[in-house]
Amino acid sequence: MLEDIFQSPTSVSLFGVFVALLLLHLLHSTFSSQKRPEPPGPRPLPVFGNLFQVDLKRLDQSLFNLSKTYGPVFQVYFGPKKVVVLAGYRTVKEALLNQADEFGNREITPIFYDFSEGHGIVFSNGDSWKEMRRFALSTLKDFGMGRKMSEEIIIEECGYLIKEMEQYGGESFNNTQAISYTASNVISALMFAKRFEYKDPVFQSMVEKDKQNIHLAGSASIMIYNFIPWLGPLLKNRRTMLKNFIDGRADIWRKIEELKETLDPEVCRCLVDAFLIRKKQLEDSKIKNSHYHDNNLLYSIQGLFVAGTDTTATTLKWGLLYLTKFPHIQDRIQEKLSRVVGSCQVRIEDRKNLPYTDAVIHETQRFANIGPLALPHTTTKDVTLQGYFIKKGTTVLTVLTSVLYDENEWESPHSFNPSHFLDDEGKFIRRDAFMPFSAGTLLDLGISL
Ligand code: HEM
Ligand SMILES: *[C@@H]1O[C@H](CO)[C@@H](O)[C@H](O)[C@H]1NC(C)=O
Ligand SMILES: *[C@@H]1O[C@H](CO)[C@@H](O)[C@H](O)[C@H]1NC(C)=O
């Protein structure tokens, strides 16, 4: 193929024109950016970019490493795709908090588009995203303070988890699935006013598919699909994910239909009800083209399950692991709990009296670092950061690993140390660099939960 090109005279001259254009383009971008240079970065190869300089299997760590060479704002090419990377607390804060608007669009990569088709909350933008995010936040808040509070839902579900664990009579067992089911049931209760039996095969396969999707989304082949979308049909992981997305939507839609049939506008049982009631109100007042349509309902619910289940379950599992690995910390928590709560049910209001436990929970989230690159953003306009020019629409990755392990922010970033969140008197202290939920406009929506 390549030989053919060089043997044909028209192709040779075409090739010449192509090279000339490429040079012009390079010269142009060098000169036009002289006033405000683009961020530095490793020199990219044609076609492959910097793919040979990054480790896609541990991308966060590898970008964190590159930031030590190129500074806290740098750019890398994933194949043909340019990405600006932000590292360290100071820089991430400067972008996501001080210039929240400019850095506040979601990057909808090809696999995310397969998932959302632009609807819902997690992988959408613009007015529709704004309305759906506002709706979900205010509805979840209502459940926090209204009738059946989220706290009650969580306490009830914990009861089922404890029962599940007690079956083993103190023997060791694999807790992965039970914890995922618990987390998923809490979301399910909020979305559908329904919990599932842990043994329910439909429920098991829903949870399993979401988990598989999250796992595959981080695989090298899906990353490559995101940089070079036309490879999609050739990639097995992408086909698996597409099928899971479609199956997942069918499962959720069945639940929505059930709720539609039994809807009573006077009684709001769950988030789906709240959405349907709002939709009906808008229709009754003849408001057309509202964002409250079936696709936004379906994709918002699917997004909340994906965003809320595995994150919570994984965090809980790390928590248990650290308690096992550091028994003196476990003992100390147990001792405080016995003193403050005794044999009562522990509740959120006890938190203020349990600063050590609170610190361990925070340190668990810092150290476990379960969303090491958050989710990708794009810039909403041309912007300057630390003197570097970043064009509107550029993909931006924030390396949360470099914030949660920032050596300028944490006394002992590489060890599990609850004192990071305690003052000299043992009182709980907040830390600015505690950003496991990211920050700014696209901040995680489930924090209070
Ligand atoms: C320990 C648990 C969790 C962690 C560590 C976590 C972390 C994150 C992170 C890092 C992001 C990306 C933010 C960004 O792009 O800058 C995010 C987004 C999001 N999370 Fe969470 N999350 C957790 C639990 C939850 C739960 C329980 C829910 C749902 C009830 C949820 C719903 C969402 C949604 C909807 C978004 C997208 C927000 C938007 O694009 O506007 N998360 N989360
Ligand atoms: C990052 O750098 C450290 C120390 O030089 C090295 O041990 C590690 O393998 C690197 N990680 C990646 C993913 O490049
Ligand atoms: C526990 O179960 C999960 C899910 O079934 C599995 O992926 C994992 O490898 C198991 N862990 C151990 C230590 O057996």
Automatic annotation (TrEMBL):
It comes from the Eukaryota. GO terms for biological process: organic acid metabolic process; xenobiotic metabolic process. The keyword Metal-binding applies. Keywords: Iron, Membrane, Metal-binding, Transmembrane, Transmembrane helix. InterPro entries: Cyt_P450, Cyt_P450_E_grp-I, Cyt_P450_sf, Cytochrome_P450_fam2. One of its GO terms (molecular function) is oxidoreductase activity, acting on paired donors, with incorporation or reduction of molecular oxygen, reduced flavin or flavoprotein as one donor, and incorporation of one atom of oxygen. Its cofactor is heme. GO terms for cellular component: cytoplasm. The keyword Cytoplasm does not apply. Pfam families: p450 (PF00067). Signal peptide: none annotated. The chain crosses the membrane at residues 6-27, 214-232. PANTHER family: CYTOCHROME P450 508A4-RELATED (PTHR24300), CYTOCHROME P450, FAMILY 2, SUBFAMILY AC, POLYPEPTIDE 1 (PTHR24300:SF319). Belongs to the cytochrome P450 family. This is Cytochrome p450 CYP2K52. It comes from Kryptolebias marmoratus.
